[in-house]
């Protein structure tokens, strides 16, 4: 019986030791709880601080164990530190969701560029990034291969013996050679040029004559690539098409021009309007209108009793007289010419 009494007294003693003490406070994960004991006596203050990489906000920044075994209230919080917004990467991309502590940026370079530096950066506890933004440097190629009898022109100025990714080389050949293959090559992301064309000799036979015309120079048996000759027309014939033809890379001449015939105005009596001048047909000498020239004859508006000019155009020897034109008889033409459509008030 005495042993039972001793056990009850010991249990009461242990319970009294833990009665009205505070257990370790329940705090946010970002608050530093290191050094806080499991049980704390009433009246003891505990200063609150943040873990590394977090910043304290609100308060109070200490809690006190009360006689009731409860901690005083606080709104103390620890928020992650912020790193500055990262600078953009020229010729590259960066991917990130946030700039808070422990956030990460991943860097990549565009096609044709090589990443120099770290491909990632982490926001550290001191509010700085673990590494600066990398550089994206272009892939380089050697100078473009030049075919025999060929020339190359670069899309940008070249310094030294290398060029950057994306550089374009345009090829030409010295006559009588012509470019066969694609006339441009490009420095690729692999550091090599696309296919180089070749220069092959091209010759054209003597150019053919054209009807009612002539060739300025037709005394050679062969003509070099890109060599040119000129055409002309005889008399009042008009050249239609290019004045010059050129020897092309397929060994043929570009399209020849043609000589178009002039026209005559097919009326016997009347007045016409040509190049801004009104002329009686018998005074229109020579009766020649060049190809594509425009001439007007006069028609009568019988309802309004007024005259009006109607145009027609010479097309390779053909000049159609408008249907509204009525050629006057000899008496009206000579005696009453002042009543002709060309002479009365115009509509």
UniProtKB/TrEMBL annotation:
InterPro entries: Compl-Cell_Adhes-Reg, Sushi/SCR/CCP_sf, Sushi_2, Sushi_SCR_CCP_dom
Location in or out of the cell: Secreted
Keyword Chloroplast: no
Keyword hit for Repeat: yes
GO molecular function: heparin binding
GO cellular component: extracellular region
Pfam families assigned to the protein according to its UniProt record, in alphabetical order: Sushi (PF00084), Sushi_2 (PF09014)
Main location: secreted
Keywords associated with the record: Disulfide bond, Glycoprotein, Heparin-binding, Repeat, Secreted, Signal, Sushi
Domain Sushi per the UniProt entry, residue ranges: 20-80, 81-138, 139-201, 202-261
Residues making up the signal peptide according to the UniProt record: 1-16
Record-annotated disulphide pairs: 22-65, 109-136, 204-247
Function, as annotated: Binds to various kinds of negatively charged substances such as heparin, phospholipids, and dextran sulfate. May prevent activation of the intrinsic blood coagulation cascade by binding to phospholipids on the surface of damaged cells.
The protein's name in its UniProt record: Beta-2-glycoprotein 1
Biological source species: Nothobranchius furzeri
